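Minutes, project check-in
Item: structure for the 267-residue chain
Input as provided by the requester:
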Amino acid sequence: MADNYTPTGTYFDGGLGKSDKAKVTELQAVWAKADAAGDAATKAWAHEQAEIIRSGNGYSGGADGSEFIPTASPSSSGGSSVKSGSGGGSSGGYSAYAMPNQSTAEKYIKELYAAQADAALNALKSAYEQNVQTLDSASSRLPDVYNAARNRIHGESEIERGAFNERAAAQGLGSGAGSQARLSFDNALLGNLGEVSREEAGKKSDLLLEKSRLETAYKNSIAEAKSKNDLALAKDLYGDAVRVDSSLLASAKAQADETYKAYTSKY
């Protein structure tokens, strides 16, 4: 296997396909961020996931991911082993390599989408809670606002009542006129207070309705986010399954060719 070894620091996943290379690059970014934060567990996880992808391509990247260490071992059916396709071998005949297959990235894909889903749902929850807090705060201020309005109406009514009494006394009006005036003041006061109470009730109703609409929108957003995430996850898992199946077919064909070479080299 020594003749297949690429020295440390020179490979860096140079032979990966575009899709696998992108995944490894993303995992390397996760590793770097965790390294800066001193998060050993996440570093170990990111390296492990990258090694799974490399293993599916027939090699290991070593401790730092920069090496090329083949993980497919030659068969020991007899004779000396040589690199596949070298056309050579010792007098014992040609020994075929066991062809590597792509390993599934299902675990990595699911973990990646789970993290994305958590981030999206947490963002929705944060926005929802902030909006609810704003509505609750507005609702809690209503009593103070409308009690102040009632106090102002009471005060204005008393001022008007006092002014009328002074005018009535100065003009010598009888008790009948005073009673009629008091009734008029009382009716006006009750009407004004009633208007304030109706407005307060309307504001409370509007806030409750807005809170209900907000909750419905939040639930719908959660369902939509989950649906989109599940669909994207399903597409990526399907693509991964196709990739692995294609690898198995290609590997089976290559293995047949290697086996045929090993067989014919002995005769």
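Outcome recorded: Confidence is low (pLDDT under 50) at residues 73-92.
No further action items on this chain.
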